[in-house]
Design a protein that fits this description.
three-stranded mixed β-sheet; five-stranded mixed β-sheet; about 290 residues
Length: about 290
Amino acid sequence: MSKLAVITPSYAQDAELFALLHRSVLEHTSEDTIHHVFVPPGDKELFAPYQGPRCHVWVRSELLPRRYLRVPGTDVYVNSRRPWPPLRGWVMQQTVKIAAAGLIDADAMLIVDSDAVLVRPTDATSFTRDGRLCLYRLEEGVTASMERHVLWHHVARELLGLPPPPPPPLPDYVTALTFWDPQIVRAMQRRITEVTGRDWLDAFNAQLHVSEFILYGVFVDEVLKAAPPVNTSICHLSYNHEPWDEATAVAFADRLGADAVGMMISAKSNTPMESRLAAIRRCAQVVESG
């Protein structure tokens, strides 16, 4: 069994960013770590060059039962048993992360978005304390103004058979880079099936608004009551939606924390590649000087 598997949903628009991420995975993880990338059917050829001993390229629909039928010419699927709502790309990206736990043989899964990179050596111990895998939980991170996040909490608790959440603030579990325990994910799948009376995948995919990260976090905290160690410093994050010039990107990289193994500049910022590369180089300098 490999100690660590890296899981990344991606698609053509993020292919250039994925190349940077995959390069960093090769550089900063052990030789037995495999990077699993899940892409739409039409993008497989674009990602095919990465296929090899350290990378497995999956078509996302490979994780779906045959009852899910693709709408021709799109990345939208319908469940032939219950065709509404259709399964769109945003929820599909979340589905593959959860479904991967049942297919991939690993002790821990590193869930990482295409617009992040690793900047330090990374393995499961990076996110483990006293033999226990940490949870990303930002206390009181979800405020009343974050309506989508509040909705995600409600949906997660409904899927898990829990009462509605208290009024905000609520914990935020959403991040660009975190570790999941596959055994916990499989237990979460079973819980959803028991609560809803449906295959977990069908119950999850039937949601118009859902967050895989909040689902996992609420399951750990409210169902398992595991009281895990918490780590919110593993990735140096920016969700800024404005493009950064090189100076701004480098200044951000200068603030890389001592415990961060990753850095993320949101793809939605449309930051130029030159600025992104300058930030990655600066991270390497920060790590070296530390």
